[in-house]
Amino acid sequence: MADVADLPRILIVDDSRVVRVSLIQHLKGQYEVREESDGEAAWQSLVVDHSIRAVISDLQMPKLNGFELLERVRTSKLRRLQQLPFILVTGEETEEERLKARTLGVSDFVTKGAGSAEVLTRLNNLLVLNSAQENLAAGREQMVHDPVSGLFTRKYLELQAAQALSHSARHGVDVSVMVLGFDGLEGLRERFGVPVADEVSNRFAKMLAGKMRQEDSLGHFGAGQFSVVSPGTAAAFCATFAERVREAVEVARLSVQGQSVALTVSIGLASVPTDRVSSAGALLDLAGERMQAAMHSGGNRTESGGILPATRPISIHHALELLAANRQSPVVPHLPSLVERLLPLMQLMNQELNLALPVAEIERFLSERKSQNN
Length: 374
Fold this sequence. Notes:
The protein is α/β, with parallel strands linked by helices. The protein contains 14 helices and 12 strands.
């Protein structure tokens, strides 16, 4: 015989001790039983005891009758109670009362005096059905959301992209996707371990989620890689957003286990109708291939299939952010263009503050450089 602690727990509610004992005898050996003598006490037990798998309740009881207990269970904010198998023990109830119970969400009825076989059969069938429904719900949830990060799964993103493509075909609007991956992920994993690296990825994902539109979908693409599906977004606007994300990661000051870590991402873009693809999966894969191309080209860049250059001049504000993060090397290639944009400011500083900055020499340098480039 199974240990009582391993048996499913059933709550029996009846103001008659004789009825409760009779039901307990029917369930003995297959179920562990908890009993209450009124509906209010039963409700308190249901709230605090998460192990209760089903309820067998009388209809006529003090404090809270069977109808009231059933209604409270089905309207509870607790999802486990909303779906809990609930059997009413009936005697001389009218068809109208049975209809009321069905309307409130009763799972089944057992007549008073029913034998063990009938009680066990009805209860077993309900628990099997409830278990199947729970497994189905869990399967759907896992298909939609990653259990650790809470982000959409790649499979669900493909469904979202497919819906967006269908809408695009009907209404002629653009659909863009981008795939982002951490540069040097393996090095991060070797340095801090896989769990820490994954936590860093999830922190990045939360930052990314805060920058997206409500209609965009963010989910996993691969290890340390994320994808965004953007319905109604043209490739050029998606590329602009991608660059903002790339720059935000580039200047972020991330502390991992007390150490400062510099991170960069590579981003691949794909869009319809610009890119000719046959399916939502192909659109995501194309963005993923472009992300890999960006990584192999040195990383910390966006590859958009020619829609926009993989790199673009950085702003003065972004250059200052990089310097504040002690990252000079990304700024160096852009120094001439930064100086050219700062030249009017330096001229004003000379004029108003008498600083004697070598503006003429800087102008000559820029002129010679422009001539060489031409």
